[in-house]
């Protein structure tokens, strides 16, 4: 029997990168998955197709996590298609780096709206449907410990996610709902390729500083998400698991 048989998961930002890997990994362990995306329907449908080809269950759903009504619709898709919701992975996120002199109001609100408000709105929509044993997994970042230069806004958003994780663990614990965060270190994704980080001196420096000697892969994070979603993690809540290959 797979670890997540009979469970239903909603994964935001699941059309690519870490989100796509998490959606596939949850499905491989028996969960039916709503692959939520903001803009790339083609990429989301490709994730769904991959899951179905492996005999899993999945549907794609479009939604802007910064809009309360659309967050409700994303959760509604899980209920409509699969009848319940047991696992929520708040993975939607964006990043942009700049020195303090170049931070703009627009950039601040863009990152905080998606990375922080989105977590709150989707969780708010999901909670009425979550029962005892449910798992909420927030995707943070190891930048909250590293605090690298030029990440004041991004690190600020992920620091907020850390705090939200702790607060909601206490708030929802009495209902039997667990809330944890995974804080990845440098992880090679489509985003790092598009941003020119992959293959750059910056990547080489990060890998050099990583005790395990390589960049992270989306699958490294996905396996931890499966653990947190499963009953194996039944005694964990309010935790922030730094998945960075030892990079501190």
TrEMBL record:
Keywords: Oxidoreductase
PROSITE patterns per UniProt: ADH_SHORT (PS00061)
Secretion signal, residue range per the UniProt entry: none
GO molecular function: oxidoreductase activity
Domain (Ketoreductase): residue spans on this chain: 7-185
InterPro entries: KR_dom (IPR057326), NAD(P)-bd_dom_sf (IPR036291), Sc_DH/Rdtase_CS (IPR020904), SDR_fam (IPR002347)
Record family assignment: Belongs to the short-chain dehydrogenases/reductases (SDR) family.
PANTHER family noted in UniProt: OXIDOREDUCTASE, SHORT-CHAIN DEHYDROGENASE/REDUCTASE FAMILY (AFU_ORTHOLOGUE AFUA_5G02870), SHORT-CHAIN DEHYDROGENASE_REDUCTASE FAMILY PROTEIN
Protein name: Oxidoreductase
Taxon lineage: Bacteria, Pseudomonadati, Pseudomonadota, Gammaproteobacteria, Enterobacterales
